[in-house]
Amino acid sequence: MDIFVQTRNSFSRFLSAFFKKKRSRIGIYGPPNAGKTTLANRIARDWAGDSVGAVSEIPHETRRASRKQDIRITGANGHMITIDIVDTPGVTTKIDYKEFLEYGLDKDEAITRAREATEGVAEAMHWLREDIDGVVYMLDSTVDPFLQVNIMMIGIIESRNLPVIIAANKIDLPDAAPQRIRSAFPQHPVVPVSCLEGKNVEELYEQMVHTFR
Amino acid sequence: MIQGVQIDLISEDRLNNLTSMEKIHLILDKVRQGTIVILEKGLEPEEQSKLIEMTMKEILPDDFNGIEMETYPAKEDNSFLSRLMGKGRHTSSARLTVIGPANQIRMIKKDKDQISAWISTR
């Protein structure tokens, strides 16, 4: 190897060791039931042999932000990132406990779930302003992406200059239309995936290595 | 007695004289009382983030379920100065914004020039 290249690489490693954060905290954000915990579990299983949290069809199953630390993801070109994955509750501007009654919960359980969910969303918003270095924004590709909460969240993420990848999830479903998400947010990389079936997650990992490096 | 809904249109001048937390408290105090709030100038992204956080803290069963909000997107600022300063694409505040109690307001339609909302009494 050229002496100049060797010197440059050594200098680069030296600078990285001093100035680069050791780990980035990557938040998985998005509306309720988009598949955030399914993705967090898949990442944790694929790269750390573990899981992060339970999943359910009832909205707001995740009511506290939970973190899986020290996950190393390696891209096809050998580049590696070390990240903490932060799985967050689904972001919304309204929570009505009566919604949970439809899933068979009794009133007390529903009220408790709603209260925990409100605390979780407040905590997730606080994390986004204080503790997150990058975002995977998770959307259900069978649902209209032009919801106000999505527009707001992407605006908040952009205003903080955080790197973001949009995951267009649930492409295994017949109504999936990830192209709608691409046209809604053309300024950001959009990766169509099925986190449940694992379809296209390799492309998402590649994009994460590229974006969060 | 006539049933009705109060709608408050808040001018840009008034909003400019308030701090972020004053704006958020003003909005939430009105919305909690069942008032529909229309802001002539929308909130900054940071303020929107705090509004969501504060709204979650105010939610109470059978009393307040949260807010419904709709706004025109911020105008893109692609000026040379903006790019030179390294600012993001959406640097200006959101425009006209409608906020109301989630159990009273339903957004029917939004396009780049018009927001249609259906409002019910309590």
Q: Main interface pair?
A: A-B, 29 and 31 residues
Please tell me the total number of domains of chain B. 1
Overall pLDDT level of chain B? 85
Kindly provide the radius of gyration of chain B, computed on alpha-carbon positions and rounded to a whole number of angstroms. 16 Å
Shape of chain A: globular
What is the 3D shape of chain B?
globular
- Compute the separation of the termini of chain A in Å: 25 Å
Task: Based on the model shown, name its key terms.
heterodimer; A: 213 residues; alpha/beta; Rossmann fold; six-stranded mixed β-sheet; 18% strand; globular; B: 122 residues; alpha+beta; four-stranded mixed β-sheet; two-stranded antiparallel ribbon; 6 strands; 24% strand
Give a written overview of the molecule.
- The complex is a heterodimer of chains A (213) and B (122).
- By secondary structure, chain A is an alpha/beta fold.
- Chain A has a single domain, classed as Rossmann fold (3-Layer(aba) Sandwich), CATH 3.40.50.
- Helix content of chain A is 42%, strand content 18%.
- Chain A is built from seven helices and six strands; from the N terminus they run αβαββααβαβαβα.
- Chain A has helices at residues 3-19, 36-48, 98-101, 107-130, 148-159, 178-184, 201-212, and strands at residues 24-29, 66-74, 80-87, 134-140, 164-169, 190-192.
- Chain A has a six-stranded mixed sheet, sandwiched between helices.
- The longest helix of chain A is centred in the middle third of the chain and has 24 residues, at 107-130.
- The radius of gyration of chain A is 19 Å and the shape is globular.
- Chain B has 122 residues and is an alpha+beta fold.
- Chain B has one domain.
- Helix content of chain B is 30%, strand content 24%.
- Chain B has helices at residues 12-16, 20-32, 45-58, 80-84, and strands at 7-10, 36-39, 67-71, 97-101, 105-110, 115-119.
- In chain B, strands 1-2-4-3 form a four-stranded mixed sheet. In chain B, strands 5-6 form a two-stranded antiparallel sheet.
- In chain B, a hairpin with a 4-residue loop joins strand 5 (105-110) and strand 6.
- In chain B, helix 2 packs across helix 3 (45-58).
- Chain B is globular and about 55 Å long.
- Chain A binds chain B through residues 91-97, 111, 114-115, 118-119, 121-122, 125-126, 128-129, 146, 148, 151-152, 155-156, 158-161, 187, and chain B through 44-46, 48-50, 52-57, 59, 61, 65-71, 73-74, 88-90, 94, 102-103, 107, 110.
